[in-house]
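Interim report, section 4.2 (structural modelling).
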Amino acid sequence: MLVSAKEMLTKARAGHYAVGQFNINNLEWAKAILLTAEEMKSPVILGVSEGAGKYMCGYKTIVGMVEGMIEGLGITVPVALHLDHGSYEGAYKCINAGFSSIMFDGSHYPIDENLAKTRELVEVCNSKGISLEAEVGAIGGEEDGVVGGGEVADPKECKMIADLGVTMLAAGIGNIHGKYPENWAGLRFDVLEKISAEVGEAMPLVLHGGTGIPADMIKKAISLGVSKINVNTECQLAFAAATRTYVEEGKDLVGKGFDPRKLLAPGVEAIKATVREKIELFGSANKA
Ligand code: 13P
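Predicted structure of the assembly:
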């Protein structure tokens, strides 16, 4: 059964660790992430961008696939199915399709409009037991068509959104989707500290752009209130590299090496290794 992300993130905030959100693209992705979370006894959040939602034939297909997998694979750890960077319309589509968690990314609206739309969604999500993530200050780079300017969040605006009763809050602190540039200045811990002080100890903070953030920065961010960390690009890069090696070594030409279950297997193993490494680093192993 899918669960809201509220309980797992409240526990993570109090226990000073973070739960990983790993974005999915297809059956192989979802299966690799679920099996790894189960193996490590870690709660997990499966992220779905609107683009990936379309690719996987719509949100209902995804709900059916993930619910079926939880049963078919015997997954016992808490699993939240979460819309990533949802639009206002996308949020409603996922609520109606059976997602257990929603991100409404209203960061590109003026703050008053972001507040009004988030306030409305808090009510709807609360009435259905769905967790809701809001965003203040844009995450830099591009996440599946959602482009952010990388504005650092205003701690006062973070408090206004947090006070609406959202489950978790994503705040721009110099983090970027995709690979970090060589000259990246690093996370703004000074801002994170102020945000944490404004929103209080009970509010789980979300760190987007988890790919490529050095381990020491991840640990410091967790110590300052980050309880959910999003990872997408790193699994894609690992999958692509392992698949390329398989083909370049000519393994698809040997016997039935062209069978998609064989061809995709090294990529799946690479996703598992990446997820395993992140769960270790985030500290959520054995917290299910
Ligand atoms: P990366 O692709 O940089 O890991 O970011 C993922 C993310 O933040 C999804 O919202």
